[in-house]
Amino acid sequence: MQQDYPVYHSMYDDFVWMQKFGDPLFHRHVAGASILGLVALKLADEEFLPFDYKSYADELQQLTEVLKSKMRGKPVNFAPLLKSIKKFSKAASKVDSQRKELEGKSFLSKWKKNPIEVRELNDRLMMTERAFIDREGLSERPWFKHLIYGPSKHNAYMSGAFPSIDDAIQRVTISNASEAWGLVQHEIWRVARVITQASQVLGGRLT
């Protein structure tokens, strides 16, 4: 980043430098705004929301395996988290099949497509992401509600996966108290709960 943008986070990183040297005609800014505008139009105009929860489930699985390998030998059990991800993956596959079926009806004839079914599917796709939010939020940072992705408490510049679990692990590391691993297990259960909740929303069993 510093090589491409040498004034990054310096006293010269301001509008004047950008106007004179960085992007005098603001072409890059226009390009960035155009991309975001196209994304917004796609989200607004697509008949089905372009959310791929199968990839989401795969990512959750990979993130859990990485975390599990780091915690090998520690007194924590990742089975609840893995079980919830498996349920979420099944729900994602099912909703993907339902979307393909509805898209097939749309292709054959617009009269065979039920707009209420399309709306119901889109509602599930939209509400699923919200299901990852926990009302209590992160410990000591309750204004952050998403339990899958969030900013790191120990590195203000970065965000990461499973922030509540990461916070608990950091607390154990700092305190060096073996009984504190119960806090980590508690956060694993909390994350597993919201993932299970998301799978229920995606499957239409929870609204």
TrEMBL record:
Q: Per its record, what are the GO molecular function terms? A: carboxypeptidase activity
Q: Identify the Pfam families for this entry.
A: TFR_dimer
Q: Which residues form a coiled coil?
A: none
Ranges where the Transferrin receptor-like dimerisation domain occurs = 76-202
Q: Taxonomically, which superkingdom? A: Eukaryota
The protein's UniProt keywords, in alphabetical order, are:
Carboxypeptidase, Hydrolase, Protease
Gene3D superfamilies for the chain: Transferrin receptor-like, dimerisation domain, Zn peptidases
Q: Which PANTHER family match?
A: N-ACETYLATED-ALPHA-LINKED ACIDIC DIPEPTIDASE, VACUOLAR PROTEIN SORTING-ASSOCIATED PROTEIN 70
Its protein name is: Glutamate carboxypeptidase 2
Which species does the entry assign this protein to?
Platanthera guangdongensis
